[in-house]
Amino acid sequence: MKKLLLDVDCGVDDAQAIMVGLADPNVEILGITCVHGNTTVENVCKNVLRVLQACNKLEIPVFKGAAKSILGIKVGDENFHGQDGLGDAPDAGAPGLDLIQEENAVSAIVRIINENPGEVSLVATAPLTNLALAVRMDPSLPAKLKGLYIMGGNTESRGNTSVCGEFNFTADPEAAYIVLNDYQCPTYLACWEFTCYNKLPWEFCDAWLAQNSHKARFMAKIFSHSIEASKTERFEKEFIAGSGLISCDSYAMAAAVDDSFVVESDQFPVSVELVGAHTRGMMVVDTLGLLNKTHKVFIIKKVDMEKFRKMMMAALK
Ligand code: BDR
Ligand code: CA
């Protein structure tokens, strides 16, 4: 059984990634920690509960974390995810926030990893604020992690938020810097350009959502706003290499749940630009080894797309 802890800014694509994890019978999700990002951290908490409700998994503990970046900046991506982060689809029966645990997300990350040394993989599909705070609380944390799987960063300086910044890193560059420096454990990055080059065709998306299940109907409802947005000129530009379904957070999840999913990766030290008129938040790949860092991350290059399709389909069954 794989033990996972998820850190999310749920977000329609986070919802998809969570559902990929929940659908795998060999995965135990120990908890879901929430952080600011696509929407407010309160909305993120509500959204995670809605996803768990749709999947009949409300027993998984959900924790509320940081509401802003390390420097106190609040972002959002309402154009793509809707005002509430899940496409503004009405949901009268949504669970109440009283189901959120009292313990803060950062304390929960520290506690859960310490309770299961060497066994937990962390899947982060959001700004890395909670993870940065957790390693400051307990510097021994990375050594106790089995693996860290992140959706974030970019390799070709192609941005989806600023000229050359990916959303999760740009939303909290200091946190991304701390995490890439201090989490010296096996680390896998599903970067923005990689997810764009491996998008799924809209025909797949149609068949995916047309499955006769409660989960598929739930996804069709929360995803329709983002699908519409994806087909607009603005997002067509952002989504390198044409239009299609980019379930970006699901690649990090798929890598965490199945060791054979990643077929090829580059191994380099990486860092994050903290200053610069246009480059703040951009990931820097040290191909020449000039930063004198010993820790190299795995930058995912090629994955088993057939497996990905199967995992995505199973998520909504
Ligand atoms: C990432 O940013 C967020 O908007 C998405 O949920 C995803 O994690 C894409 O850059
Ligand atoms: Ca996300």
Automatic annotation (TrEMBL):
InterPro entries cross-referenced by the UniProt entry: Inosine/uridine_hydrolase_dom, IUN_hydrolase, Ribo_hydro-like
Q: What GO molecular functions are on record for this protein?
A: hydrolase activity, hydrolyzing N-glycosyl compounds
Gene3D superfamilies recorded: Ribonucleoside hydrolase-like (3.90.245.10)
Q: Which Pfam families match?
A: IU_nuc_hydro (PF01156)
| Domain Inosine/uridine-preferring nucleoside hydrolase, first and last residues per copy | 5-309
The coiled-coil segments of this chain are none
The organism's superkingdom is given as Eukaryota
Q: According to its UniProt record, which protein family does this protein belong to?
A: Belongs to the IUNH family.
Q: What is this protein called?
A: Si:dkey-4e7.3
- Source species: Poecilia reticulata (Guppy)
Query: What does UniProt list as this organism's lineage?
Result: Eukaryota, Metazoa, Chordata, Craniata, Vertebrata
